[in-house]
Here is the input.
Amino acid sequence: MTQPLNILIIGLGLIGASFGKAIRHQGLAERSVFVLGYDRSQGVAEQAVALGVLDQAVSDLAWLPKIDVVVMAVPVMAIGTVIDDIRPLLGSLQALTDVGSVKGQVVRTVRERLGTLPACFVPGHPIAGAEQSGVTAAKADLFEHHMHILTPLPESDPAAVQLITQLWQAIGADVVEMSVERHDEVLAATSHLPHLLAFSLVDTLARESENREIFKYAAGGFRDFSRIAASDPTMWHDIFLSNKDATLKVLRRFQADLTILEQAIEHDDGDLLQTVFTRAKSARDQFTQMLAERQKN
Amino acid sequence: MTQPLNILIIGLGLIGASFGKAIRHQGLAERSVFVLGYDRSQGVAEQAVALGVLDQAVSDLAWLPKIDVVVMAVPVMAIGTVIDDIRPLLGSLQALTDVGSVKGQVVRTVRERLGTLPACFVPGHPIAGAEQSGVTAAKADLFEHHMHILTPLPESDPAAVQLITQLWQAIGADVVEMSVERHDEVLAATSHLPHLLAFSLVDTLARESENREIFKYAAGGFRDFSRIAASDPTMWHDIFLSNKDATLKVLRRFQADLTILEQAIEHDDGDLLQTVFTRAKSARDQFTQMLAERQKN
Here is the structure.
């Protein structure tokens, strides 16, 4: 009889807790799993057990059974502390991964703390989320039909990459691989910049409007556009400081393009507006179609 | 027995056709209504009759029965032509209104064409819409629990304002009044600018990405943020050219605020990011609460 795969999740927020719930629910094809979890907030790991997220709560990272896989599900800026905490485990791990929205900063932090990148380390990022946060928001199907991006490093052991791939595939994610740099550029464009624009616009309007009265007249378009401005400020503070270069690059491209539209409005250049809007609509319609096809699969 | 109120809708797109369908469905408390409609595209008015939008199709605006109310449901830039067409009716109308997203330009056009503002004229704008367009998308409940902004003019006959108010209230809209200038500022901020940002961002990303491959990695946040970039390019081209001053004013405020965030990222000013994001989240959470309360009523 093979031993179960012991998985330790550190950080039991929405992502970490949903991973635990999902992997306990789905299991692995050829090996049973045993899910342990730790959270620095007291009582959360016990709550996670009660919610079916974990098999066992861990109250002290210094006292652990044999662990095969560690999933670091903490904010990007907390990775350094976690690496310090789990240093004694690293020699015997089959795989170590994370779920951070920025990959370059996570890799830099691990290298700084350890002086090297361990072969077991396979950085990752699930393209999934929800408006709710915390362990009580955990959903076993959160990652189904969602992309999971892995950014294996030159140092990564292929067996570790394979194991992490299997775990995410087991819970329904579409696993894709790309470089750390490419990941941070893609996410800066499709996620970080839109969040910055939504935060910025809502703040501009809220500050200008007496008693925020202006929002009374906002329709469904504004509602959807601005939804991401309700995201966690601390998490996004971390993301922008961690993915500074890629975010600034795409932000400046956007600012330059927006200035062209500003000038077109100022100079009544209707042709330019029509051209840009038509091109944008075509790209957005294609995106809608892509989402519909993904939903069907 | 009182005569029915004869309402002529000019322009049978989503808004005009939905108004017809709604008012035929709901009626007025003390008077029956008879809904006529005209569309410059051949066959659309007949199709509208078949769809229950109209009592009667009008094929030529030069030959009309006695009309009491005209609703101009055409793009802002088409208002001038409509005014020319209905000039013979104006003397006997009880009320004339429109549904344009910009009010200053509509009022200027009417004044230019007629040399004066007729007392029957009460400009209006329903804060409602849908992704679909055209007569087949007409929905009798499109305006229920939605704001309808009226911008009565100093020249407007109070009886005309009252009649237009009654019509929109009859189909479930929350009618509010404000000045033309205030309307155009509020809409520039809550609708026109967000559309410009969504069009601009989607275009920036689509042009930079080979085969638009980048969109594959976009998540729900981007999907919602960018939905309005699929809006009708011609309608939005008209809106930006018509509401130039108010749009440029709020756009420039936004650009200045965005540059402050850009500099905060560049100089690792985490406190500023945290402050802006926290303020934005608070405003957006308040907006969510307001929407929930409106839904309950």
Observations:
- The domain at 5-178 of chain B is CATH 3.40.50.720 (Rossmann fold).
- Chain B has two domains: 5-178, 183-266.
- Chain B has a mean pLDDT of 94.
